[in-house]
Design brief:
The chain is mostly helical. 79% of the residues lie in helices and 0% in strands. Helix 2 crosses helix 3 and helix 2 packs antiparallel against helix 4. The radius of gyration is 38 Å and the shape is elongated. The mean pLDDT is 84.
Length: 172
C-alpha cells in the first residue's frame, strides 16, 4: 500500500514540476519577445549596421571562394595535362625497355621509331650504369629503369607543387 502511495505521490510531483517548468519557460519566452519588440532607434541602427557588416563579409567570402575554386580548377586541368605527358613518357620508355629485353631487331621500323622518339628522354641517363646482356642479345637496360624512376619522382614533385598552389587556404 505504501508503494502505491509513494508512486502516486511521485507522479503528482512530476506533473507539478512539469507544469511549473512550462510556466517558467513561457514567462522567459514572453520576456524575450517583449524586449525584442522594445528596441530603441539607436539599437535598431546598430543592429542594421551589424547585419550590413555580416552581409558584406558573406558576399566577400563567396566572391573569394569563387576565385579560389576557379584557380583550383585551372590548376587541376594543368595537373591533368602534366599527368598525361608523364604517362606518355612512361609508356614510351617502358616500350623501349621491353624491346631491349626481347632483343628486338634494331632495323625494324617500329624499333627505330621508338628509339628516335625516346632518345631525347633517355640521353641524360645513357651510360650511368652498364646494361647487362644475356646470350641472344637480350639486354636489361638499367639506364631506362633509372630514367623511369627519375621521371616518376619529377612527376610527383610537380604534382606536389601544383597542389600547394591549388590548395584553398582557410582561416578560423
Amino acid at each position: 500500500m505504501n508503494d502505491n502511495k509513494l508512486a502516486a505521490d511521485e507522479a503528482r510531483r512530476e506533473v507539478q514540476h512539469e507544469s511549473i517548468k512550462a510556466e517558467v519557460e513561457s514567462d522567459v519566452n514572453a520576456e524575450i519577445a517583449s524586449r525584442a519588440e522594445r528596441t530603441t532607434p539607436a539599437e535598431a541602427k546598430k543592429m542594421e549596421q551589424v547585419a550590413g557588416d555580416f552581409r558584406g563579409r558573406a558576399i566577400n567570402e563567396v566572391v573569394q571562394t569563387d576565385r579560389e575554386v576557379e584557380r583550383a580548377r585551372g590548376m587541376a586541368r594543368f595537373s591533368q595535362v602534366i599527368d598525361y605527358i608523364f604517362y606518355v613518357i612512361y609508356a614510351l620508355l617502358a616500350i623501349r625497355l621491353l624491346l631491349a629485353l626481347m632483343a628486338a631487331r634494331s632495323s625494324a621500323g617500329f624499333v627505330q621509331f621508338i628509339k628516335t622518339v625516346t632518345d631525347p628522354l633517355y640521353a641524360p641517363f645513357r651510360g650511368i650504369v652498364p646494361s647487362p646482356s644475356a646470350e641472344g642479345g637480350f639486354t636489361l637496360a638499367l639506364p631506362i629503369v633509372i630514367a623511369i624512376i627519375v621521371y616518376a619522382l619529377l612527376h610527383g614533385g610537380i604534382n606536389g607543387l601544383l597542389r600547394l598552389f591549388a590548395h584553398r587556404k582557410t582561416q578560423i
